[in-house]
Each structure stands twice: as structure tokens, then as C-alpha cells.
Amino acid sequence: MAAGTLVLTQPTLVATLTLMGFCEGSSSHSMKYFYTGVSEPGQGLPQFNAVGYVDGQLFSQYDSNTHEALPQVSWIKEVEKEYPNFWEQETQNFQGTEPVFKENINIAKNRYNQTGEVEASNNILL
After folding, report:
1. Distance between CA atoms of residues 98 and 35, nearest Å
2. CATH number of the domain at 6-125, out of 3.60.21.10, 3.30.500.10, 2.20.25.90, 3.40.190.10?
3. Most buried among 7, 16, 32, 64, by the most CB within 10 A?
4. Residues 47-84 pLDDT 10s
């Protein structure tokens, strides 16, 4: 699906946006973030979720229930030694993205006259 593609399905509106960034250098590693939001989540499920992957391995998870980025692998402790504020910054980034994502869902609902559930996802590849 092309970047910025909006896909409409009834009764659900699904929006997908893919942003690609490239790092200079000869690194053979990849870091990807995936953001998902729904307008009407089920009981106990988060309205907003963000996950981070390095080389295809989940390393970070955040959702609108916990409001905190949490490590998912043990090797991340090495990163924490070099960047002691890593999780605080990760949490702040996700907390800043959450309200924007929720507002974008509301805009999409209004723009396309959707009254039911809306799901949106955003993938950032670094």
C-alpha cells in the first residue's frame, strides 16, 4: 500500500500511513515503530498502542492503559547503560503521539461520516 493511502471499509474506517526514514552509514540493523489506534476498543483493551522492533525483535511496548514504554527484551539493558534516559524519552515520545493519533481518528471519522469503529495504524521505518 502506498504511503498516505486511506482505505475505507464499511462499517470500519481503516487508515494506514507509512513513513520511511533512512540512516546514513553502513549499519545492517533496522528499527521500526508501529502505532495502532481504535476509536472504540473492547473492554480492557487499549485505545492506542505503540511497539518498537529492532531487527524484527520486539524491544519496546506502550499503550494507553499503562502510559509507559516498557522494555520487552533483556539486551536493552546495554542500551540503558549508554543512554540512561532512554525509557523516559521513549515514554514521552509515545505520550506525545497518542493524543495526535486519537485526534486523527476523530478527524477521519468526521471527514468520512463514520459513526462506527475506526482503526488507524502508522508505521515508521528507520
Report:
1. 9
2. 3.30.500.10
3. 64
4. 899 999 999 999 999 999 999 999 999 998 888 899 99
Contact in structure between 124 and 28 (CB atoms under 8 Å): no
More reliable by pLDDT, 81 or 108: 81
Dihedral-angle region of residue 67 (phi above 0 means left; psi in -120 to 50 means alpha; beta otherwise): left
* Rounded Cα–Cα distance for residues 49 and 47 (Å): 7
Q: What is the DSSP pairing of strand 13-20 with strand 6-8?
A: antiparallel
pTM of the predicted model as reported, rounded to 2 decimal places: 0.68
Tell me the pLDDT tens digit for each residue of 16-42: 333 334 445 556 888 899 988 888 888
Grid cell at residue 51? 511497539
Q: Which residues face 124 on adjacent strands?
A: 19, 33
Angle at alpha carbon of residue 17, lines to 125 and 45, rounded to 5° = 90
